[in-house]
Amino acid sequence: MEPDLFTAAAEERQIREPGSSPLAVRMRPRTLDEVVGQRHLLKPGSPLRRLVGEGGGGPAGASSVILWGPPGIGKTTLAYVVSQATEKRFVELSAITAGVKEVRAVIESAKRQSGGYQRDTVLFLDEIHRFSKAQQDSLLPAVENRWVTLIAATTENPYFSIISPLLSRSLLLTLEPLTDEDLRALLRRALTEERGLNGAVRLPEDSEAHLLRIAGGDARRALTALEAGAGSAIAKGEEEITLATLEDAVNRAAVRYDRDGDQHYDVASALIKSIRGSDVDAALHYLARMIEAGEDPRFIARRLMISASEDIGLADPTALPTAVAAAQAVALIGFPEASLTLSHATIALALAPKSNAVTTAIGAALADVRAGKAGPVPPHLRDGHYKGAAKLGHAQGYVYPHDVPGGIAAQQYAPDAIHGTRYYEPTRHGAEARYADVLDRVRGRLAGEQ
Fold it and tell me: For the whole model, what pTM was predicted?
């Protein structure tokens, strides 16, 4: 069993006093201005600004807010900031461990403290999509009567996972994934601020790059890894968090991979060429490197879809549906679970019979078109549905294939310039052998041969 990625964080405590909070908690923003990322939500006059009473327009009218976005991008943080800015009591529950009983207890407490007339408690409910419809229904009275300001967080599409009455009474805010620049600003702030590491160690460029890779857009993971690395460096008496120290601290080797440089294209090329060469183990290696480097899973999925047609084609007609299904699944679930889906598709494509007949066929056809080999469409194939078409001879003499035995009519379909040219030359690999046999018969029938 691989060790927990961040077990070192629990072991290396030298960077903070015993009993103090973890770095990720200490660096939690205290105001909206300290929040990294989410610029679209933090503009002057935005609903979030108005929710905390900024902008001169007073608080936003909604008594419930739903924060939708991937893990580790600041949903809990925003809820905490709202409670601090409005000087309300902050109560946090998770739908994973809490039920209707716990929610009602918070609501009753809020009613007692406020006398039932003012909203002075922020109830943050994490993972609200895990609540059943009946459990979500229990929140409606508190929202409608404004006994609490409900801020609910979800990683699932709220239009599918949250009941309509609650959704219609809520301000829905969609959070965007944190960029590397967002995380870089957060890490550098944590290194220097007094509540963070207070300049105890430095973070070289290569170590910072590795932290960004392993964080995968998750601020909490980035800060936890930084804390682990800093604790390990201080324990060794080092003044900076070297890459080797950081690797040891987070139990993961750094991947030599630059998403914006040559390595991005080299590793992607190696993945496709390994699939083309049917080396499933090499393909999985390059896939793992891309995943560890924080590559966009959608980019990997697109490459697999291209490979399915470029290198497999009709030798395995299921290859493209497999790749497309993988791309759709990746879009729905994201990392880390998407690594399983990408692995599934990579293995299937690597072990599939190979044919580039689809690639060469369209390549040859495009070459002829670009060379000017086009010519007019044969008259009997032209549109004959408009008035006057018959006078022009359009659609005259066309033989309807469904009216002839076998469904194949012996007539010319291609323009004269390329009549008789063959673009698709199927291989005898896998399922394409069947297409090769069929094609020989079809071409003979088209030519009038029996």
Answer: 0.51
